[in-house]
Automatic annotation (TrEMBL):
Pathway: Carbohydrate metabolism; tricarboxylic acid cycle. Signal peptide: none annotated. The keyword Disulfide bond does not apply. Belongs to the citrate synthase family. Coiled coil: none annotated. Keywords: Transferase, Tricarboxylic acid cycle. It catalyses: oxaloacetate + acetyl-CoA + H2O = citrate + CoA + H(+). This is Citrate synthase. The keyword Transferase applies.
Length: 388
């Protein structure tokens, strides 16, 4: 039999790329991650410049439409966002069926399922898929609805009532308001807005790729987002921002870092918030988020947390040459803002839903079913034994 490298099941000649590492799976015009120049561009714009100058809503529009919005377009997006901010009764009822101890990522996954079922009720699966334009319209409504779910989750765990959305606040300030029920301070809103922009998009990461795989079967955008949330929950991906805070709490103080690391590395523990599949010399977004964290450390007068952060970073980088990723500064930043640790990854969802849905629309516009091959390594063909 002729060996054929494109048919690995036939002869084991294919190169297997474990974890698809280094594989270019498709083209995208949404973002460019360049580990060589340590840069990240959204539709051509450096992310740190967007974080310094734009409201998150404008970046959402940029990801969906390819250009920054005009004043009218931004006003239109903001009007839609405000219109769909309230916690819907069916979403609240579904969350209330879950145990209060449920992880908020599970609440969020459930909430998106409920919204999705409502959005496409009465449509066949084929019609539910929709076109990129309708997908972006649905994405706008979902983006607007998620902050109420995140806020309700944290408040429900704390035994507190829902706080109604406020029309006079932008996306970031309103999310903080609905979570804490207090007037958000501008310095906190600014740090939070930057975090949303930095988290919004990162090419073919695991959750975005998951969303594209689901989309490639012609499933609808809410199905793709449910799957993406599931992928993001894992601590090797979005769940790392929670794990960072657990690590910092476990260490406790800067002077305990060296001994803690001796033990953790001896036990081959992964140090959460460090390392990245693409960036091997540092994450392009960390300096911007670290600057936001520094502002919060000063604002809340928590130099102890700043010292602990710096000590773990310098000790781990010195020992392993592995650098922090975005989750490392985001975890303590969200902690200082007052979010429960379990709420951190849902905040990531509130941001990344923009990137995911931009990818869903891009996949729909030039679709091909995503279905790689595998190299079979199980038993050779054999006869089924006769029943005794
Ligand atoms: C928003 C995001 O999703 S960013 C990523 C968030 N995830 C984390 O912070 C979790 C911790 N980090 C990791 O687990 C990894 O760095 C990943 C999964 C992010 C990237 O992994 P990969 O590119 O597959 O690198 P891989 O896991 O093969 O690591 C290469 C080597 O560095 C080590 N390494 C990588 N990251 C870490 C870490 N955080 N702590 C300890 N060792 C690490 C690995 O153990 C491996 O060592 P080995 O060659 O001796 O076996
Ligand atoms: O790109 C990745 O592999 C992980 C990710 O989503 C990010 O860093 O924002």
């Amino acid at each position: 039999m002729t060996m054929n490298t494109s048919q690995p099941d036939d002869g084991g000649q294919a190169e297997v790329r474990k974890g698809l590492a280094g594989v270019v799976a498709d083209v995208t015009a949404i973002s460019k991650v360049d580990p060589e120049t340590n840069s990240l561009l959204y539709r051509g714009y450096p992310v740190q410049d967007l974080a310094a100058t734009q409201p998150f809503e404008a970046v959402a529009w940029l990801l969906w439409h390819g250009e920054l919005p005009t004043a009218d377009e931004l006003a239109g997006l903001r009007a839609t966002e405000r219109e769909h901010r309230a916690l819907a009764d069916d979403v609240r009822a579904a969350i209330d069926l879950l145990p209060v101890s449920a992880h908020p990522m599970d609440e969020l996954r459930t909430a998106v399922s409920v919204v999705g079922a409502r959005e496409v009720a009465g449509l066949s699966a084929l019609d539910a898929a929709a076109d990129p334009e309708e997908t972006v319209a649905r994405a706008g409504r979902l983006f607007a609805a998620l902050p109420a779910v995140v806020a309700y989750g944290q408040r429900r765990r704390r035994g507190l009532d829902v706080v109604e959305a406020r029309d006079d606040l932008d996306f970031s300030a309103n999310l903080l308001w609905m979570t804490f029920g207090t007037e958000p301070e501008p310095v906190v809103v600014d740090a939070f807005n930057r975090s949303m922009i930095l988290y919004a998009e990162h090419s073919f990461n695991a959750s975005t790729f998951t969303a594209r795989v689901v989309t490639s079967t012609l499933a609808d955008v809410h199905s793709a987002v449910v799957a993406a949330i599931a992928a993001l929950k894992g601590p090797l991906h979005g769940g790392a921002n929670e794990a960072v805070m657990e690590t910092l709490a476990e260490i406790g103080a800067a002077d305990r870092v060296a001994a803690w690391l001796d033990d953790a590395l001896a036990r081959k523990r992964k140090i959460m918030g460090f390392g990245h599949r693409v960036y091997k010399h540092g994450d392009s977004r960390v300096p911007t988020m670290k600057a936001a964290l520094d502002t919060l450390v000063e604002h809340y007068d928590r130099p102890d947390l700043g010292d602990l952060y710096a000590a773990l970073e310098s000790e781990f980088v010195a020992r392993k040459g592995i650098y922090p990723n975005l989750d490392y500064p985001s975890g303590p930043a969200y902690h200082l803002m007052g979010f429960d640790t379990a709420t951190f990854t849902p905040l990531f969802v509130a941001a990344r839903v923009t990137g995911w849905t931009a990818h869903v629309a891009e996949q729909q516009a030039a679709n091909s079913l995503i279905r790689p091959l595998s190299e079979y390594v199980g038993p050779a063909r054999r006869e089924v034994p006769r029943r005794l």
